[in-house]
Specification:
heterodimer; A: about 325 residues; mainly alpha; 19 helices; about 75% helix; globular; B: about 625 residues; alpha+beta; 5-stranded antiparallel beta sheet; about 60% helix; extended
């Protein structure tokens, strides 16, 4: 990328990142009343529990991403466009699950995210299908055909095995993302791989714990369902962790920094919150220090995705009049 | 000549629910109403047409899927009137049953296709298995301790699978690599069999069953696989035939459903705008003021129960939401399309289509004046009239203008001496041509300013109409600039009078802008300064932009001269060929450039000054054709 474009991107991301809610401020956001929150973060929405909230927050995020993606071209653009399809995987999972469990179209539609110009899935055509097999036949004509073939065999063989489907879809996505990172120039690749690895450490650890201790899967199957390309938790380490029989053993066997972070954690939710906070901090640090434009955009994309998710949870929680402590627990804010 | 969109009235029709389908059918056949969201939704709270609409959409969706299997167009009858909910329901169910049968066949075709792929894979890899250094009979034998698998997995799964299965003391040995797959041999303990099977499935493992005959009778096995493949093909053909049989048998049903769908379309469209309570429903929309009486009369003759029909004039607050109904002679249709490419005029705004048609045609002729080339454009438009709708009309206007200016310039296929010019050849006095283009530009910009003032007044923005750059001050600024330039060029005078003629109107524009800017003092100073400079540059460049009208007319002659010079260097045959090809080159390339340049002048120097293009097109309710 030409120097002037890189400088433009660095400045642009800085401006946008300056508008993100700092990690230490989430406690205050939870204390804010619903009206103020809505005025500050949403244009208008009469019913805050409706999918309109999600849509408005995502629409704004997508508009920012579109702005940031504009100066990129070629492989860089391709990588960013691919990364944004993380959102579309939610749609894919919702559609497959919804159709196989026989949910009504309107119910499924409510949970779908409109990706606007980034969308690859013909959502309405897929929603209009009359049975899951018709939908899978149509999905096979989309860029997600490889995932769909896997999804079909999982469903046919394992019935409503949702986590296996999620894992297959996620694994496919992350392996595609890593492949695209490898095509980038060395100066972009190095910081991007650090971000990617940090993100994967969090996801792999959570998935591993979930598979091993919540779903009671064997070490082999648990390991197979991971995407073992982390920064600290590389494949050898994950194979070792997969052999552990208890959660405490897993924590004990973690690298020092993660072990220290999770030493007091007793439940998966606690681990999830601590790891999310840890990952976001690391990504935020990279965003502020890197001189690679594309890395900064990628970091912003991840931070913004997390902000949208947390805001959605808080606003919905408040609209449903949940206890503040419960909301804190759900979004992992303990201060 | 400069019309505004047709005056509209707000229609509100309150009626009994049983009359709603009849009213929708009637209004659709008249194509008079642009539906709007009902303002009474909140108060009335019921949506009587929702079920009907949902059924309509389902039927439409399923019919689309069924029609996907049909190549030939299906003949349908004209709808005989409104369609009842029951009829729609029955058709929807019948089409659903048909689709289910078709879908089952489609799924079978897919499964058969997958089987074929598997058999092909097996056939291709037979030699690999023959060379495999194990006794294949082991694989199918029932061992008390070990379980073996042979099959394929996608390339990207191998590494992960090997590592994962090593955790279960399982061996994964890849023995062959094809373009898309790895052929693997897996050996595991019986106790891990279930776990391994699940992992293999998750890895898209495709098991290959190796028949015992592979070693003893490989040729026979190959033949059997070929038989399987041909039997798969037969099966696929069978299902495809079954699909066609179903379609043929159900053709009357499909045709009937299509007719029903067409008949149901008006009420299904209206349904989303229809709200009511109990038996009362209300429909709202915009209609042309001239058709009010006709609508009332027809409703009186068709509705079976009393109804309340009211009409209202659009209020000032509603103006931006009223749709725009443009009515022109059909001859102007291609120009209307080009105007709508830029945007639709807002209700109350001047519709620029007639002005556009006239100025575009004149500019094109001025820039591309040649009798022969004009005639050729008309001929090409005639020949390709079926490929692009409106092309012949557009080509007739543009070509006609070319012919007219061709006579004025005395130009025929680039020959400047065959016909005497009724006026003059552009090359005989280029300065005069440039001067005429400049005057044309000033005239054009004056008209756009006047239209802008009219449009601002139409939406009640009087201050902007008077003081803004798009208003009277803007027009005075243009005239002041022209006056100052004239004085300087002709009389070499540029004193207080000339300066005042530019800067007084500019001052008025900037003063008005200053008042409308929201922000701090510094921001106001910066924006006003930048916009002041921009205004001067913009007016100057816009006026000079029209010099291209003359430039292209000169260019046209110059290009023809170049062709003739080239032709003169050839022998008689080469001379003729060069002239033909040269003229074709001029028509295609220069003609295309001139067409685009004219459009650019219209859009950027014209429309952008007076026409927001943010209007909503009037879309009448009509019978949908499927």
């Amino acid at each position: 990328m030409p120097l002037q474009d890189n400088s433009y991107i660095l400045t642009r991301v800085n401006i946008l990142a300056g508008r993100l809610i700092p990690l230490q401020d989430w406690g205050r956001v939870i204390e804010t009343d619903l009206d103020t929150l809505q005025k500050k973060h949403l244009c208008n929405s009469e019913n805050p529990a409706s999918s309109e909230i999600e849509k408005q927050l995502i629409d704004r995020a997508l508009a920012d991403f579109q702005l940031l993606f504009r100066p990129f071209s070629g492989l860089e653009r391709e990588m960013l466009n691919y990364a944004i399809h993380w959102y579309e995987l939610f749609n894919l999972k919702t559609l497959i699950r919804g159709k196989f469990s026989g949910r009504r179209e309107t119910e499924i539609e409510r949970e779908l995210v409109d990706l606007g110009p980034f969308a690859l899935l013909p959502l309405h055509t897929l929603l209009d299908t009359d049975d899951p097999y018709e939908m899978l036949r149509l999905l096979e004509q989309t860029p997600y055909s490889t995932i769909v073939r896997q999804a079909r065999s999982i469903f046919e063989e394992e019935g409503q095995n949702l986590f296996a489907l999620d894992a297959a879809i996620d694994r496919h996505f992350f392996s595609g993302l890593k492949q695209r990172l490898r095509y980038l120039s060395a100066e972009d690749q190095q910081p991007l791989m650090t971000v990617y690895g940090t993100m994967m450490d969090r996801l792999n650890l959570l998935w591993l714990i979930r598979y091993r201790f919540s779903y009671q899967l064997s070490p082999a199957k648990s390991y197979y369902l991971l995407a073992p390309t982390g920064k600290r938790l590389h494949s050898g380490k994950l194979m070792h962790l997969a052999r552990m029989e208890t959660l405490q053993e897993v924590i004990e066997a973690l690298p020092a920094s993660l072990k220290q972070l999770l030493s007091q954690a007793e439940s998966l939710t606690q681990i999830e919150n601590l790891m999310e906070h840890y990952t976001l901090q690391a990504i935020d640090k990279i965003l502020k220090s890197t001189q690679s434009g594309i890395t900064r955009v990628f970091c912003y994309l991840l931070l913004r995705e997390s902000e949208v998710r947390l805001l959605q949870a808080i606003i919905k929680g408040k609209a449903l009049e949940f206890d503040e402590a419960l909301i804190r627990q759900a979004v992992g804010v303990n201060h | 000549m400069l019309g505004r969109p047709v005056p509209l009235k707000h229609l509100s029709l309150a009626m009994l629910d049983c009359d709603a389908p009849i009213a929708s059918d009637l209004l659709a056949s008249m194509r008079v109403i642009h539906l709007i969201e009902n303002r009474h939704h909140q108060i009335l709270g019921e949506f009587p047409g929702k079920r009907y609409q949902s059924l309509y959409q389902k039927l439409e969706n399923r019919l689309k899927k069924v029609l996907h299997h049909i190549d030939e167009p299906i003949t349908t009858d004209a709808p005989s009137g409104p369609v009842s909910l029951q009829a729609l329901q029955q058709a929807e169910q019948e089409i659903y049953d048909l689709w289910k049968q078709l879908s089952a066949h489609e799924e079978q075709i897919r499964i058969t296709h997958e089987k074929s792929q598997h058999h092909k894979q097996l056939a291709n890899s037979l030699s690999r298995f023959e060379n495999l250094n194990i006794d294949l009979s082991w694989l199918s034998s029932d061992s008390p301790f070990l379980k073996f698998f042979i099959g394929t997995i996608p390339h990207n799964e191998l590494e992960q699978l090997q590592r994962a299965l090593s955790l279960a003391n399982t061996v994964v040995d890849p023995f062959h690599k094809s373009a898309a797959h790895h052929y693997i041999f897996v050996a595991t303990e019986k106790s891990h069999q279930q776990d391994i099977e699940e992992i293999l499935k998750a890895a898209s493992f495709h098991e290959l069953t190796i028949p015992d005959e592979l070693r003893s009778r490989p040729q026979q096995l190959r033949e059997e696989l070929q038989q399987q493949l041909s039997s798969n093909q037969q099966l696929t053909d069978h299902y495809q035939d079954a699909i066609q049989d179903l379609i043929t048998t159900h053709q009357p049903l499909i045709s009937k459903a299509l007719t029903l769908l067409r008949g149901a379309s008006p009420f299904a469209t209206i349904a989303s705008c229809l709200s009511g309570r109990g038996q009362l429903v209300i429909l709202e929309g915009w209609v042309a003021a001239s058709r009010i009486e006709e609508i009332d009369q027809k409703l009186q003759s068709r509705l079976q129960h009393p109804y309340l029909l009211t009409f209202g004039t659009p209020s000032a607050g509603e103006m931006s939401t009223v749709p725009s109904l443009q009515q022109h002679p059909r001859l102007l249709d291609p120009f209307k399309k080009l105007v709508n490419q830029f945007g639709v005029p807002r209700y109350g705004e001047v519709d620029p289509t007639p002005l556009f048609a006239l100025s575009y045609t004149l500019m094109f002729g001025m820039m591309f004046g040649d009798v022969g080339h004009g005639a050729f454009i008309i001929l090409a438009g005639f020949l390709f009239r079926k490929k692009v709708s409106g092309l012949f009309t557009f080509a007739s206007f543009a070509g006609g203008s070319s012919i007219l200016f061709g006579f004025l310039y005395g130009s025929l296929f680039g020959f400047e001496h065959l016909i005497p010019p009724l006026w003059m050849s552009p090359m005989s006095d280029p300065t005069q041509m440039l001067l005429i283009a400049l005057i044309w530009g000033i005239g054009f910009l004056t008209i756009t300013h006047l239209l802008s003032i009219a449009n601002l007044l139409a939406i009640d923005q009087r201050a902007a109409a008077l003081w803004s750059g798009r208003g009277v001050s803007g027009l005075l600024f243009l005239f002041g600039g022209v006056f100052a330039a004239y004085r300087y060029m002709v009389d070499q005078q540029f004193a207080l009078l000339e300066l005042s003629s530019i800067f007084l109107p500019l001052g008025l524009i900037l003063h008005y802008r200053w008042d409308t800017i929201e922000g701090g003092l510094n921001e106001k100073i910066l924006i006003t300064l930048i916009e002041g400079v921009d205004k001067i540059i913009n007016n100057l460049s816009a006026t000079l932009s029209f010099l291209r009208v003359a430039a292209f007319s000169l260019n046209h002659v110059a290009l023809a001269a170049a062709v003739f010079t080239l032709a003169e260097m050839m022998d008689p045959l080469g001379h003729t060929i060069t002239l033909i090809l040269g003229n074709l080159f001029i028509i295609v390339l220069e003609g295309g450039i001139v067409a685009i340049q004219c459009l650019r002048l219209e859009y950027y120097e014209g429309f952008s000054r007076f026409f927001s293009g943010k209007g909503e097109r009037f879309t009448p309710l009509k019978m949908e054709t499927h």
